[in-house]
Amino acid sequence: CLSMKNKTSFVPGKLLGYMAAAKPVLAFLNKESDGFHLIEEAQCGYATTSDNVGVAARLARTMYGEKDVLAAMGARGLQYAKEHLSRDVVVQKIEALLQK
Question: Rounded to an integer, what distance in angstroms lies between the CA atom of residue 16 and that of residue 57?
Fold first, then answer.
């Protein structure tokens, strides 16, 4: 859960940790967070702004009702992390940028 006072665009470190551990994600973020895009692209859970209590409660109930798909969400997060966020992949991307 991130404070709405935070106005920087970033991905919380614990989000990456949850993905690497193959855990489904329910994130309450500031609206500037890149975590929204990451969770959506990886299809590893749900996110809303931390000041939207109604949506947060609805998403928590949704996940509770989807117990049978939580493992698949977590697995998608892990697969995404391996394909896009692993050290080797990131180093290759940086090297490609430096060669331009």
Answer: 23
Scored b (16 or more CB within 10 A) or e, 19-40 reads: beebbbbbbbbbeebebbebbe
Q: What is the pLDDT of residues 29-81, one digit of tens each?
A: 888 889 999 999 999 999 999 889 999 999 999 999 999 999 999 999 999 99
Q: What does the pLDDT average to over 21-31?
A: 93
Q: Which secondary-structure segment (H or E) carries 54?
A: helix 53-65
Strand partners, 28: 48
- For residue 41, the tally of other CB atoms under 10 A from its CB is 11
Contact between 27 and 14 (Cβ < 8 Å): no
Contact 6, 52 (CB under 8 A): no
Is pTM beyond 0.85 here? no
Q: Which residues pair with 45 in a beta bridge?
A: 25
